[in-house]
Amino acid sequence: MKKLIFLDLDGTLWNNEKVPLSALSAILQAKKNGHKIFANTGRTYCEAITSLLPLQLTGHCFSAGSEIYVGDKTILFDPLPAHSVKKMTSYLLKHHVGVSMEGSHRVYQDPINHSCFAKTIAEDANNEALRRFMILEDISQATKEDYNQFMKIFLCNPNGVDISTIQKGVEPDSELTMFGLDSGEITNAKHNKGTAIQTLKQYFNNAYETVALGDSENDLTMFDVADISVAMGNAKKEIQEKTDFVTTDISDNGLQYAFEKLGII
User: Fold this and answer.
1) 87 and 181 fall within a common domain
2) DSSP calls for 164-213
3) CATH number, domain at 184?
4) Which of 112, 153, 239, 263 is deepest in the core (most CB within 10 A)?
5) Residue 215: which domain range?
């Protein structure tokens, strides 16, 4: 049975937006064999599309399942409600939590997040994804039109605000995911990486078996719904234990090895 294959980005498809040659070869062969391949990421469209386009994937799932494309066709575009973004951002800033309002086309951030990213860049100067955050405009520059394209809010919490306090500022139509105490994100409660798989499986009339490959906590919703779930060898043990199969490390031809073991190539 042909497969719909869903790839997380960082730690799965690439490291620092550099795709291993073995992964490029595996993707090309899988497409020749009739399988369809999608990126499935928490990043918004504008944060990843430039690096993804050369791969010529079947399509892309952005913003934790709230923005989905097959080729150039938009299958789903469901940003956070503008009133919710305004209310949540105001609350978070009042409580000294940094915010980046991440849109499909434009991203804005406040000085707290800018300072946090600058500190991280100082420790990891080659991180291309974070380097882009250093040139973002301040959130005060966001226009009325911008508020109709914000897909998620990324939080930095250098002041150690209690998570329960942060949670109180999250609107019912949104969902908070914390990455420890220092950072987190607010996304559309209706969507996640798993619902992206379900949407595309239905779009293709359930004619394909689904395969999800990932390495971190935000990939668990993919693993829950995919017919076959694969953890990268570089994933934490607790992530690996929740999948059907563990491949090798991304730096040890992990994607290619998984494709071979599953008969994709």
Assistant:
1) yes
2) HHHHHTS-TTEEEEEETTTEEEEEETT--HHHHHHHHHHHTTT-SEEEEE
3) 3.30.1240.10
4) 153
5) 3-78+191-262
